[in-house]
Amino acid sequence: MANDSTTSWREQVSLAAYVAVIVSLALLAITPAVMLQRLTSVVQDNDQIYEPASLLERELTFQYERKIAELRALLVSSDRRYFDSYRDARAAEAVILGRLEPLVQQISPVAVQRLALVRRVAAEWHVWDDSLAAEAIALDDYEATRLARQRILEDSTFASTARLRAEIDLQSDAAIEVSAAEFRRQRLLALGLGAIALLAALAVGWFAWRQRSLTGQLQWALSEESRLRAAERTAREQVTMILESITDAFFAVDRAWVITYVNSEAERLLHRRREQLVGRHLWDEFAPAVGTPFQGEYERAMAEQQAVEFEEYYAPLAIWVDVRAFPTAQGLSVFFRDITRRKQLQEERERLLVSEREARAEAVRRRDELERVTESRTRLMRGFSHDLKNPLGAADGYAQLLEEGIMGDISPKQKESVGRIRISIQTALRLIHDLLELARAEAGQIELVPTLADAAELARGSAEDFRAQAAAAGLELEVRASGPVEVRTDVTRVRQILSNLLSNAVKYTPSGRITVETEARSKQDDQADHPWVSIAVSDSGPGIPAEKREAIFQEFTRLDPDAPHGAGVGLAISRRIARLLGGDIVVDSDLGRGSTFTLWLPAGVAE
Ligand code: ADP
User: Fold this and answer.
1) What does the pLDDT look like over 399-422, one tens digit per residue?
2) CB of 431 closer than 6 A to ligand 1?
3) Is the CB–ligand 1 distance for residue 504 below 6 Å?
4) In this structure, how many other beta carbons lie within 10 angstroms of the beta carbon of residue 223?
């Protein structure tokens, strides 16, 4: 309002300034013309009225003086010729008066009166003179009776003409004075108008300058406004682009819960197109959410002007959503994402955790059970072995007495039978011994005595124990070692393992050769933690099928169950002892060509 009134005030003042400039310039343009017209009329009046009137008055006076002169000449000389001059003067007087009459009428009523007086006085003055000129009066009569009176009338006439002249001069001067005053007034007016025009022009200039600066400001404001509009448009587009490119679903509502925006991810999750949602009431469109935490949380966010965050299940769409709602100036902005998969995984994980806990408890239970069983088996086997070993040992003793004939002579056939009994008893004793070893190894009850030894020497010693056996079986036995290979281990146990491996090699190799090779290695297979020593026993036997290579390390597992030798526990015991020594036994085999059993021992101190 204030601005409007200021603007209209300015407009009115600037209009007034324009009008003032135009009017004063117009008046300024008129003023010289008016002045010129006034001046012209004064000059004209002077030329056509005052100047001729003044001249005529002087001529009249001259004619009166001429009349007097002619008459006096007549009186002095009595020459009648002067009568003609007198009449000429009178005729001239009549002409002059005729011309003067219209002029004095234009001068003033006083001048008219004064000319009338001149006529009257002159007429009276002329009566006697004319009579004399008409010779109605004798010269002598005239001089004697009339001269004195004529003199008085003559003076009156001149006085009248003088007064007429004074009136003409007065009016002439007055006219000049009036025009001079008018001229001064016009000059003052011109000056005033000039000043007004100047002031108005200054005002117009100031307004024009104001106008220009205001126009400039307006243009700047307009361009600024359009720039801001463009910036706002760009910002809006960027926001839309961001809202469309974010992975979260997004929608916005105003304070009346009317949906104002829905991004494409929200369209996808809600299975609704934005055209179906924008402009609609949120709780009409999602009626099932009324009364649920969705409504409660959104209303809380709006009422407390505070962001809220929650996870909730939306039954109509069968999805879990993670929601974050932020109050805005316009209403509420809601971001949400589908966390159904995460929830499922979480539930799955929790389920797995429970079953893992259960499995672990079960494993602990089983391990305890196993330990218990193992221990009782060990105890049982130990007692059982003891109980078997003693009677078997006694039986063997008696069989030996029989075999050697100490209990009396026996026939060669009986001796052979006793021999077989003894072999069976010893096989049974070996088996009992092996089972006892296995039980001990399983229970970790094998006592180790580590000493520093040369592994190559150990291997050679063990091989030599089997040289005779190998030779008897027609097998070649070769021992290879690059030099002394130091190892700190339980020598007896290593020998026990090597004996088992060599015994197997001899047992299961029908022909060919057996090689024992000792090496110091930087790594055990692929593991590279510390130096290792390997003792490999290779044979040219039948080999072991790949699928059986691990099974043969299980107790009582044999490739050929009908084979006469062995009970299938040797490798099981050997691996357990090797592992107790900090190493292991692995097998590599080429089916039909042979097998290599390698004992790995750590090169350091065996614990
Ligand atoms: P066993 O007393 O039966 O020899 P082991 O535990 O020493 O018991 O060996 C288990 C089985 O592994 C043997 O029965 C045999 O079938 C197989 N085996 C062991 N060593 C060899 C080898 N050098 N060549 C072929 N088969 C072998």
Assistant:
1) 999 988 888 888 999 999 999 999
2) no
3) yes
4) 10
